[in-house]
Write a structure and sequence with these properties.
single chain, alpha+beta, four-stranded mixed β-sheet, 6 helices, 69% helix, rod-shaped
Length: 226
């Protein structure tokens, strides 16, 4: 048969020490104190060393991240500065090319305006040489813009054109007093009526026309007159 078992309780150390001699009991207490102090010092050292290592790792990680960020920022600034240094002369070259293109286009347009004016003058001269009576139509248009004159109308013409007009259209030429003026070139004419005088020649009309052409082709510059 099994015997009834019951747990055995060991007496506390203080009770055990009470039964020891005083010297042994003091030695036991010193051992306990030394063990406790050693445990505290060991725990402090381990905690201190662990804290230093943990702090070192955290500081390294933080420093590494900050170094990476700072290096990336410095690299970006340096790359941007190099790019700007390279792009600056390129931008200047592009600006010069654009300026040259604008100047070339302006020069070409001026040449076109001058060519149109030159061709127009030649066409007008050819037409007047073949049909000088067309000058009388210009006189009619000019008189229509002037107030009615009670007195006679005087028309100043180039002497050669005056003679040809009188020969080709004597009836129409008789409507006004045609006065030769050697200072006037062929195609030029001045009209005087009622104390007023107006330019009825081709040059002024051509100049007004070329101003409109220049305004279309050269809006930023003054139109060149013929």
């Amino acid at each position: 048969m099994m015997k009834n078992l019951r747990p055995h309780r060991f007496p506390p150390l203080s009770q055990v020490g009470g039964s020891l001699p005083p010297a042994a009991s003091a030695q036991l207490q010193r051992s306990h104190a030394e063990a406790f102090q050693e445990g505290m010092e060991r725990g402090y050292r381990e905690g201190y060393d662990g804290g230093i290592e943990s702090g070192r790792r955290d500081g390294f990680d933080a420093g590494h991240a900050e170094g990476v960020r700072t290096g990336a920022e410095e690299g970006r600034r340096e790359a941007l500065a190099r790019f700007e240094a390279i792009a600056r002369p390129l931008d200047a070259a592009i600006g010069e090319v654009r300026q040259l293109q604008a100047e070339y286009q302006t020069a070409m347009r001026k040449e076109v305006v001058e060519l149109v004016a030159k061709v127009a003058r030649q066409v007008i001269r050819s037409e007047l040489a073949l049909q000088p009576v067309q000058m009388l139509a210009l006189v009619d248009e000019t008189l229509a813009t002037m107030p009615p004159a009670p007195e006679g109308v005087e028309v100043y013409l180039n002497p050669e054109e005056r003679e040809r007009i009188r020969e080709l259209a004597p009836d129409r030429a008789a409507r006004w007093t045609l006065i030769p003026d050697s200072r006037l070139e062929p195609g030029e004419c001045r009209v005087r009526a009622g104390g007023r005088e107006a330019d009825a020649g081709c040059r002024q009309r051509l100049a007004a026309c070329m101003e409109q052409v220049s305004a279309q082709l050269l809006p930023s510059t003054e139109g060149s007159g013929a």
